[in-house]
Amino acid sequence: MMNWELLANKSLQGDEITDQEALAVLECPNDEILDLLHSAYQVRKKYYGNKVKLNMIINTKSGLCPENCGYCAQSRDSTAPIEKYRMMDRATIIQGAKRAHALKSGTYCIVASGRGPSKRELDTVTSAVEEIKQNYDIKVCACLGLLEPEQANQLKEAGVDRYNHNINTSENHHDNITTSHSYDDRVATVNAAKAAGISPCSGVIVGMKEKKEDVIEMARALKRLNADSIPVNFLHAIDGTLLEGTNELTPTYCLKVLCLFRFINPTKEIRISGGREVNLRSLQPLGLYPANSIFIGDYLTTEGQAGLKDHKMIEDLGFEIDYVTTEEEDSIGLVF
Questions:
Q1: Who has the most CB within 10 Å: 15, 155, 209, 294?
Q2: Which strand (E) or helix (H) includes residue 323?
Q3: Are 95 and 60 in contact (CB under 8 A)?
Q4: 187 Cβ partners below 8 Å, 6+ apart?
Q5: pTM tops 0.90, yes or no
């Protein structure tokens, strides 16, 4: 039997867990799941206490994407009946920030489909961000696809705090998911954001027919990238996508994945992201023992749990919403 408490202590001391220990986490017997969660919680508590960060997405441009990502309803190969529209105007993006602030979200995520932003799209986003930062004490994260260094600099100058670009899966499994861009393209974008002084956000999608060894490598790759924020998505297979009908996940396995990411990236924001409602189901509250962050509201093309229900879930756990401002995070070294 694995001693989960010793594993937590190892993580707290800054020591790498071995591949054998990592695999043991993913293969933890279900009758030991509470012991595993308790150990991961000790690590989470050390760095984040009982606070939960809230993030909210606005999908500013939907569909019309030339990429062939097998999980995505916005892909060129998808036949999913989603709403498709060009980039929203500046005023609509600003209005979304107002709603995010009202729902006590600490981070407002401006997302757009596509390979990367056009000049007009980038100008629209940066103009909106400048006004948002003047009016709301809220962190702004942008997720606009592949970035060139000069585009990253423009986002930084406008006031973007964080840039999201997920690695999604392991380098070994990447070509099974998409071939229209490379794994190295994704890593280069994360590094471009870092070079511009923007806090890097990069995460994964679990449940895309990868091996457990791939999941372990994803967590290690994000440690090497030094991503400040790590969204862990659980595949919500959408009809019309290449991964339609894929259903590999169980609620307990999802909890084990979150524990693994906490052990390997002990100091980082671990966010339960897309697919939590359909994959964790009634066990959603338990996910906040290893993770310290969630998305509220809807995702890009799928609905999420109502924001006020998330507030109640956090309250019922005895946890509290994290209201730390961007300036306070900078002062205690949680952003850069």
A1: 155
A2: none
A3: no
A4: 167, 225
A5: yes
End-to-end CA distance of the chain: 38
Q: Are 3 and 28 in contact (CB under 8 A)?
A: no
Q: Nearest to residue 272, comparing CAs of 263, 285, 282, 313?
A: 285
Provide the CA 327 distance to its chain's centre, in angstroms. 22
Pairing of strands 107-112, 139-143: parallel
How buried is 134 (Cβ within 10 angstroms: 0-12 exposed, 13-18 middle, 19+ buried)? exposed
Q: Are 145 and 117 in contact (CB under 8 A)?
A: yes
**What ranges make up the beta strands (E) of the chain?**
51-61, 107-112, 139-143, 162-164, 199-201, 204-206, 229-234, 269-272, 293-296, 320-321
Helix, strand, or coil (residue 29): coil
Task: Tell me phi and psi for residue 308, to 5 degrees.
Answer: -70, -30
- Helix (H) / strand (E) element for 2: namely none
pLDDT tens-digit profile of 20-57?
A: 999 999 999 999 999 999 999 999 999 999 999 999 98
Kindly list the distances between the CA atom of residue 213 and the CA atoms of 99, 170, 174, 238, in Å, as whole numbers in the listed order.
40, 9, 14, 25
Specify whether the CB–CB gap between 122 and 154 falls below 8 A. Answer: yes
